[in-house]
Amino acid sequence: MTKSELRKKYKALRSELSEDQIEDLSMAIANQLLKLPIWDFSFYHIFLSIEEQKEVNTDYILNILSGKDKNIVISRSNFTTNELTHFLLTDNTVIKKNNYNIPEPADGIEISNDKIDVVFIPLLAFDKKGNRVGYGKGFYDTFLDKCNPETLKIGLSFFEAENEISDAFEGDVGLDYCITPKTICAF
């Protein structure tokens, strides 16, 4: 299937999930993450969930990161440049929803891409080769391109892998892992 077809399919599948299902599946994903050998790093980038899009609830992962005393990095989106600016999440960080209902930091301590060790990535679908499909604006491709090559890229998905994304291309930044409620996929 193409990225466009997969976006349509997985937005529809997500829309059918109840709030209880989203919570249960999100907790299962967080529990799967605890099995990965990724907890010795310092800076972890995570997205704040867009409830209206029925994304994976990252609150469970935020709790794990806080409990492990990690530096948590969140982003603000610039829809003119399709780029993300990253900020350290602290007790003083003010979170506001933008025009697309994305919860974002109002301001804070800016963190450069090269400091980030692990990135948790929102996605709609992924395939068995580690290709991913997002919303199509390229924010994460641009961001991941500017990270260190060693930065771990971890997708979070309610659903299992597709066999292949037929229009994936070499410029797409692939995943190192994708975590579903039932599976840890390594690429």
TrEMBL record:
It catalyses: (6S)-5-formyl-5,6,7,8-tetrahydrofolate + ATP = (6R)-5,10-methenyltetrahydrofolate + ADP + phosphate. The keyword Cell membrane does not apply. ATP binds at K3, S4, E5, L6, R7, R132, V133, G134, Y135, G136, K137, G138, F139, Y140. Substrate binds at I50, E55. Pfam families: 5-FTHF_cyc-lig. Belongs to the 5-formyltetrahydrofolate cyclo-ligase family. This is 5-formyltetrahydrofolate cyclo-ligase. It comes from Hyunsoonleella aquatilis.
